[in-house]
Design a protein that fits this description.
The complex is a heterodimer. Chain A is of the alpha+beta class. Chain A is built from nine helices and 22 strands. The N and C termini of chain A lie far apart (57 Å). Chain B contains ten helices and 23 strands. In chain B, the strands form four sheets. In chain B, strands 8, 9, 14, 15, 16, 17, 18, 19, 20 and 23 form a ten-stranded mixed sheet that branches. In chain B, strands 1, 2, 3, 4, 5, 6 and 7 form a seven-stranded mixed sheet that branches. A four-stranded antiparallel sheet of chain B has the order 12-11-10-13, with no helix packed on it. Classes of the chains: A alpha+beta, B alpha+beta.
């Protein structure tokens, strides 16, 4: 198969294409289990295989994909045809940033292959968790396990040849309850980074059991809690909400294709302009953010992107100043040319496709906030006069240029004079993105820093769902409107 | 092709009959093409041909499924998929209820929503459609973005309970054309949904765009003061809000799980404005309808709200099995929602802008990133986008920077509704994360809702 791919690469190159690449997925498998109120509502598995071909012809992209690898030549021909049509409307001919050709492989760290574990063991695990969640006050109980495994062979017309073997494990527990007014509330636990590998070993019964007990207890507190007040307060975000704040208002805002207008028809743009790099005060001096695909053991670490560029640790915001973006080969060339200066010296290695039948686009890797020096969660709370501690993503809505947002969380704890007083329900907060990050007044120390896994980031047309991570500490922001 | 698909499923059924469990096969084939525009260029031109086979095994109360992307030539691979599903179900845990395995009493095929001309549309024609929509409107700073998405979608089913099959084939296209100012950052949009090639109308797209470009180029722009406004929603915003009503409103399973704003004791009661009549109407070909559901239940017009009175919840088969309800023919990829038109006589944006008005009207054509804040209250939040206008009482027009609405869908479609346009249009809502599933909702061209609170207003574009 690899020899045939290379043969067709050469053939299409000789037909006038300036660049060609091909991704062959011999297999991509998933296994998803959902237990809902004790019912195994979903026991699903999937397997797919196929090829995706990308052709650059006279400055325009064409892409084609098929699950039928016996017709490989036709897939290449169709991609070239598509590029020829696209070449009829070119305003900025696509160029690709330089990279080194590599022949290498990457395997994500996994100790016990989850696909080697019998289905009955996975079901038994969920059954145990369901029994733990089946407590007073709980109206709905949901347990989820998702496992993914894929092999990707990438070859391009520049001589790169990369094999990737990636295994992903995601797990979560959720409980729902009804308050006295008949309104539903929920509390959830999501499996995040634990240790150096992610395989079946991540499904630690004791860890899940501890969190099952915690979310049941916290949900029962929410059910009898007063409504979150409408107020302006300091907001203290735990990693279970801080990851989403980072994701939506730093991650998506700094995808270079969005900044350059390539997502305007659907996902939206960004308030950031090319002129802002090196100058814009994105946040307070306590804010340092990075796109770190070298972080060990995270879905946002994948060895090489789908341009064949190795994983990078790229600084995005340096002590509050915007310095970088989430980039791939095409966009950095275009951005530098449009800005008439070199903003991005090289690709950031963040161009990824969700499947063989999708084209790579700029995707988040691990968009992390560096830990700070403002102590533990307890110390940050103790140093807060009037605040609210928030956790658990419940609702999120962001402006089309990522300039403003409205979030709802599962739980809030009010803080008065440095002490947590009580739980509130229906907690929300909203703000303008730049005002919010510039109101960052405390960043927790490394003890508060957690890598949160995300399995469902959507972007692009046709839509693509991607897996990634966020390493984030506890953070406090001042003067934020809550409760609306 | 149809015969080959059905023969393949029949052959696979014969193989499945040897298994000690029941097997249901769900075949999905998409021939998808998407031309994407950005910065006035074709930024991407893709085509994918994908065949998915979902195999569900039932053994008493146990159920398991296996899905594969495959090809009709791969019989051995598909049989292996049946083997895997049959093995999985042995290790599954019994449900607390009896899952229904559909029995198709006759074979059924519906290709009435297939249009050969649209199926065969080539790249040059798509490019010409979009070019014509923006002729004379693009400038050095006003750049084209958008998509021309088109495809053929085929669904076929068989199971071991009978030899009969179900077969559905549709064509669809979704055209979105955006003109965005690269330095001022404003953006306007026109959209079209097509089931047939003849539904495509470049001139209509161009008229909408030209009107909005004229306003955005010359009218004063500014930040709106927070407060209450009379809002006129365009088709995209109305369809999006109805989608949320579909999710957290009249879905029986969601209601039983506590994740809905309607209760069973509200059936038969007036909940929404008496101007609101909402029907799931699979007779409307613009909605890419399923006229039978996946369990074989024939589907006809199904009233949801009649003059504001809540008529019924919808029940998919599995939810009905779990909660002891009667299935309503809603085990389908999508409903065919139709919000009936009303008495409003404006049928174009230009006519809306020119009509005399008793007070300022905030026109919101599109809501970006709507999400649920509180499902029990039907509370959702989202921001305006793509060509909002402030139609002032004195007849002038201003451009509002984007604003945020945080409102209950029960209020939006409640007694605050002032009028709905007589004219209705199909709005394409095919934002699928997975397999192609062409979907559209038919909505009035405009819906005016009075006294809605703006909770946030941007300070710039």
């Amino acid at each position: 198969m690899l020899d045939q791919m290379k043969m067709h690469l050469d053939r299409i190159r000789r037909s006038g294409a300036s660049y060609v690449d091909c991704r062959w997925y011999p297999f991509e498998e998933s296994n998803a289990l959902t237990m809902w109120n004790g019912n195994l509502k979903q026991a699903a598995a999937s397997r797919e295989s196929g090829v995706g071909v990308r052709v650059l012809y006279q400055g325009a992209w064409g892409f084609s994909a098929s699950s039928d690898t016996s017709a490989l030549g036709a897939v290449f021909d169709k991609a070239l045809d598509n590029a020829r049509i696209a070449a009829e409307r070119v305003t900025f001919p696509v160029r690709l940033a330089e990279k080194d050709a590599v022949q290498t492989a990457f395997t994500s760290p996994c100790h016990i292959d989850p696909f080697s574990v019998p289905l009955s063991d996975k079901v038994a695990f969920l059954k145990t968790m369901d029994e733990l969640l089946d407590q007073s006050g709980i109206f709905q109980r949901i347990g989820d396990l998702t496992f993914m495994r894929k092999q990707i062979h990438f070859v391009d017309s520049e001589g790169s040849e990369i094999e990737k073997n990636i295994t992903e494990v995601f797990g979560s527990l959720s409980v729902l309850g009804m308050d006295a007014q008949g309104a539903a509330h929920q509390r959830s636990f999501r499996l995040n980074q634990r240790g150096g590998t992610r395989g079946w070993e991540s499904i630690d019964k004791e860890h899940f059991a501890e969190n099952a007990e915690r979310i049941v207890r916290e949900l029962n507190q929410i059910l009898v809690a007063p409504q979150c007040p409408v107020d302006d307060r300091s907001v203290i975000l735990l990693p279970g909400q801080m990851f989403l704040q980072t994701h939506e208002t730093i991650g998506h805002a700094l995808e270079l294709d969005r900044i350059l207008g390539y997502e305007l028809a659907f996902a939206g743009g960004s308030f950031v302009t090319l002129d802002d790099f090196g100058k814009l005060r994105y946040g307070s001096e306590k804010l340092t953010a990075r796109a770190d695909a070298t972080l060990p053991n995270s879905p946002g670490s994948f060895g090489f992107d789908d341009d064949g560029v190795p994983a990078k640790d790229a600084l995005l915001i340096d002590r509050g100043i915007l310095v970088g973006a989430i980039t791939g080969r095409q966009m950095v060339e275009e951005a530098n040319a449009r800005a008439h200066r070199v903003i991005f010296p090289e690709s950031g290695g963040a161009n990824r496709a969700t499947a063989f039948y999708r084209v790579p686009i700029e995707r988040m890797t691990n968009i992390n906030i560096d830990p700070g020096t403002d102590g533990t969660l307890d110390e940050i709370v103790a140093a807060t006069d009037r605040g609210i501690v928030l956790d658990g993503d419940r609702s999120w809505s962001i402006g089309s240029n990522r300039e403003q947002f409205h979030f709802g969380t599962e739980i809030g704890w009010l803080v008065e004079d440095g002490q947590i007083t009580h739980v509130v329900k229906n907690a929300t907060y909203k703000d303008d993105t730049l005002r919010f990050w510039n109101a960052l007044s405390a960043v927790g120390d490394p003890s508060t820093w957690q890598v949160v896994y995300v399995d469902n980031c959507g972007k692009g047309q046709p839509n693509q769902v991607m897996q990634l991570g966020h390493g984030v500490p506890v953070c406090r922001f001042d003067g934020v409107r809550i409760g609306e | 092709m149809k015969a080959r698909i059905l023969q393949t499923l029949t052959d696979l059924r014969t193989y499945a009959l040897s298994k000690p469990c029941e097997i249901a096969l769900f075949y999905h084939e998409e021939d998808s093409a998407l031309m994407r525009f950005a910065n006035s260029a074709v930024s991407l031109n893709t085509s994918e041909h994908l065949i998915r086979l979902e195999i569900t095994a039932y053994a008493g109360r146990k159920r398991a499924s296996y899905e594969m992307i495959t090809d009709l030539t791969q019989m051995a691979e598909m049989r292996q998929g049946i083997d895997i599903a049959a093995e999985m179900v042995e290790h599954a845990q019994p449900l607390a209820y009896d899952p229904t395995i559909p029995v198709f009493s006759e074979s059924y095929a519906d290709e009435s929503c297939y249009d050969a001309a649209l199926a065969e549309i080539d790249g040059a024609s798509k490019l010409a459609t979009v070019n014509a929509a923006v002729t004379g409107l693009e400038t050095q700073h006003l750049k084209l973005s958008g998509i021309f998405s088109s495809g053929v979608n085929t669904v076929a089913q068989i199971n071991t309970r009978s030899e009969h099959t179900q077969f559905f084939r549709t064509t669809d296209a979704q055209v979105t054309v955006v003109l965005a100012h690269d330095t001022l950052k404003w953006e306007v949009q026109a959209e079209q949904s097509a089931q047939r090639k003849s539904d495509l109308d470049s001139q209509a797209l161009r008229e909408d765009l030209a009107f909005l470009v004229e306003q955005y180029t010359h009218a004063p722009a500014g930040q709106l003061p927070l407060g209450s406004y009379d809002v006129v929603f365009g088709p995209a915003a109305t369809a999006d809000l109805l989608n949320f009503m579909n999710w957290i409103g009249f879905n029986g399973g969601m209601a039983r799980r506590g994740y809905a704003c309607l209760r069973e004791d509200q059936v038969g009661h007036k909940i929404l404005s008496d101007k609101v009549t909402l029907v799931d109407d699979p007779s409307r070909r613009e909605t890419f309808p399923y006229r039978r559901d996946y369990t074989g239940i024939p589907r006809g017009p199904f009233p949801l709200f009649q003059h504001g009175v809540f008529a019924a919840f919808t029940w998919a088969q599995d939810d009905a099995d779990e909660y002891g309800a009667q299935p309503t023919g809603h085990s389908v990829g999508h409903k065919s929602l139709v919000l009936h038109g009303g008495s409003g006589d404006v049928d174009s944006l230009a006519a809306l802008a020119a009509a005399p008005r008793d007070k300022d009207l905030l026109y919101i054509p599109f809501l970006h990133y709507v999400n649920i804040v509180n499902p029990t209250k039907g509370l959702v939040t989202g921001s305006s986008r793509f060509g909002a206008l402030l139609l002032k009482q004195d007849g002038s027009i201003a451009i509002p920077f984007n604003v945020r609405l945080t409102q209950s869908v029960l209020d939006i479609f409640g007694d605050k509704v002032a009028w709905l346009s007589q004219q209705t249009v199909p709005y394409n809502t095919s934002h699928s994360y997975g397999a192609r599933n062409p979907t559209a909702i038919i909505v009035p061209r405009f819906v005016r809702v009075n006294d809605l609170e703006i909770s946030h207003a941007n300070a710039s574009f």
